[in-house]
Amino acid sequence: MAGIALGVAALIVVLSVMNGFQKEVRDRMLSVLSHIEVFSYDGALMDWRKVAAETRAHPEVVATAPYISAQAMFTSGDVVRGALIRGIDPALEPGVSVVVVNLKGGKLSDLAEGEFGVVLGLELARALSVAPGDKVTMIAPQGTVTPAGIVPRLRQFRVVATFESGHYEFDSTLAMIHIGDAQRLFRIEGPQGVRLKIKDMQQAPRVAAQLAGMVDPGLAVRDWSRQNRTWFAAVQTEKRMMFIILTLIVAVAAFNLVSTLVMTVTEKQSDIAILRTLGASPGSVMAVFIVQGTLIGIIGTLLGVAGGLLIANNLDLIVPAIEKVFGVQFLPKDIYFISALPSDPRAADIVPITLISLVLALVATLYPSWRAARTKPAEALRYD
After folding, report:
1. Partners of 123 in beta bridges
2. Which residues have C-beta within 8 Å of that of residue 53, sequence separation ≥ 6?
3. Using the 8-state DSSP alphabet, how is residue 119 labeled?
4. Ramachandran angles phi, psi of 65, nearest 5°
């Protein structure tokens, strides 16, 4: 019973922590990424206001904002860094992005068209050794044709603020400028697409499929899960393998249940024989041991579920207490952006764990019960 409870509790706690990390990373990613994007493969989306109005007609869409996405390089002194440039509308961007609400060193409204200001990711700013108020030079890949050949276009930008999403990939590569400045620098006639925010990001794939039928067929619609499909697929594979590995703990406990019942059957041979001589059928004898094993499985599973949920829902108290007692820190703040173990217990994990544990316990009772039912009274009582 204790083995089953331990296995079930371990499964629930580990999967809850994995869910918590996945949710934490996903939320940090979505503080920068949009829930859904509607964009044109051909370049500029000249009628982006019409597209925004059409998508806003969907009941799930709460905000829209145009964007331009391009690549460039930043130089500061001897340092050169590649970056993903996002042209944004400072008035509309806060509706679709969380990270721009809490900037460091300045405000998003400081991105005025024609003044060539830039908001850098914190890690990118550190790599370039710049702070708000400093100047950086942006090198656009689209060159200018001159008699001397193709010369890259250079433009000096003033750092107006920095942002920190907690996701290194974005903090070290992303820079935001005014969409008007992006059009001039990259020679694009208009926004490339529209970013959307919806009420429930979990419904993004369904909403994206519906929006694809509402907008022009020549436009592409992409949700956040497709933008990061490789990462989410890797996490799901890791979670699935962890589930299989930890289920072996429950399987070992079920094997122990088999050995326990076999020993009980051997010990109770005489009692079983007496019951048989009094008229008990093989089926009734078998039912006795099935009920015994099933009760062990049910009680062990329920204890495991209760213990697992208790630990998973109180990790924010348990882990700091363990760290204080042993003087260790599992997730140092100076190394990890996530300094506490996140936990997110989900019914989609707990229900299968419970059912698998009960099925294994039930299966474990079959062989010992079958052996008990085959007991022959004459042989069992021969030496008693």
Report:
1. none
2. none
3. E
4. -160, 140
69 phi and psi angles, rounded to 5 deg: -125, 130
- Do 8 and 353 contact (CB within 8 A), yes or no? yes
Pairing of strands 149-163, 117-121: parallel
The dihedral through the CA atoms of 146, 151, 157, 163 has a sign that is positive
Residues 137, 141: Cα–Cα separation, whole Å: 13
| pLDDT 10s digits, 180-221 | 999 988 888 889 999 999 998 888 889 998 998 888 888 889
Structure confidence by residue, pLDDT tens digits, 317-364 = 888 888 888 888 777 665 666 667 888 999 988 999 999 999 988 998
- pLDDT tens digits, 126-157: 999 999 999 999 988 776 666 656 667 888 99
> CB count, 10 Å around CB of 120?
30
Taking the model in full, what pTM does it have?
0.72
**β-bridge mates for residue 135, sequence order:** 158
- Please say whether the dihedral angle defined by the alpha carbons of residues 248, 250, 256 and 257, taken in this order, is positive or negative: negative
- Cβ(365)–Cβ(294) under 8 Å? yes
* Token pair for 357: 């544990």
